[in-house]
Amino acid sequence: MRTRPPRALPRRLVLSTGVAAVLAITTAVVLPQPAGAAETSPVGFGAGTTGGGDVSPVTVSSLAEFEAAVTGEAAKVVRVSGLIPLTGQVDIGSNTTVLGVGSSSGFTGGGLRVKEATNVVVRNLNISKPRKPADGITVQESTKVWIDHNSFSADRDHDKDHYDGLLDINHGSDGVTVSWNTFKDHFKGSLVGHSDKNADEDTGHLRVTYHHNHFSNVYSRIPSLRFGTGHFYDNYVEGADTAVHSRMGAQLLVENNVFRTTKIAVTTSRSSDVDGYANLRGNDLGGAATEISRTGTFTDPPYGYSAEPASSVVASVTAQAGAGKL
After folding, report:
1. What is the pTM of this model?
2. Which domains does the chain have, with CATH numbers?
3. Annotated catalytic sites, by residue?
C-alpha cells in the first residue's frame, strides 16, 4: 500500500505494517471524520477542476431548460431536479458544474457529452440505459473533468451492443478524476482510448484517476485503457468477467482494490495489437486471476493522495458511493 501526502488535510491516514504472502497487511489510523466521500475538490489527475465554482446555481427540470443552461463557457452551476428522458447526448460547455438534486435526479435513455471543453464537474446524477450511439457520459477532446458520486446503470437483459458505454473518455482528453460512482448491470463499463489506431492523438494524454467506485455486475472495461496513464485505487469490483484492462500503450497502477466473483481482475493482453503495462500492489483479488505480460513503470502518481487499505474498501465504497451520498 502507498500513501502520499495529500494536498488538503486527509480524512484517513494509512500506515503500512508489512506484507503477507498474497495481500498487504495494513493498519489504519482513523481520524474523527470518515474517508473523503464528500470531497469538495477532486483528488488525482483531475485535481484543480472547479466547474462553475461558487456562482449562484440555476435549477432545471426539463430537457429544454437543461440544454439552455449548460451551453457556453461562462461559469455556471446547473442543478437537475427530477429524471429527464434523453435521446442522444447533451453537450456541456466549459466551466460548468452539473449537480443532481436529492438522490433520484438525472437522465435516462441517453447521456451527457463533454466535448472540446475544460473545467467540468458532474456530480450526484442517476444516468441510466444510454441507448447507442450515446454513452452515459462521453469525455472527448476535453481537459479537467471531475465525475463524482453518480449512479450509472443499464441492464444485461439485452445483447452487449444494445446500450453504449456508461463512461467513455477518448480523443486526447486529459486530467480526469472518476470518484465515488456506482456502475451497475452493464456489459461495457468505461473505455479510455477508443482505438489502437489513435496513438497520435492519445499518447501523452488520457491521464485518468479512478478511486472509490463500485462496479457491480459490469462485464468488462473496468476500465479499459489505451495509450494513457491510469491510477485505479480503492475501488470495489464484483461480478466482472474481465475487469481492469491495460491495452496498447497504456500504463496502469492498480492499488488497494477489492475484487469479488470476478474471473480476470487485471489483464495486459487481449483485444489490442500490443499489450499494455500494469503494476499491482495491495489488492484483494478474492480468487480472481491476473494476466500480467508486461510490468509497467508507473508506480508513483504525480499528486498527493491517501489510499486506504483494501480491508476497509468494501465498507467505505458500499456506504458512500453513488448518487444521494453527498
Report:
1. 0.89
2. 12-320 (2.160.20.10)
3. 221
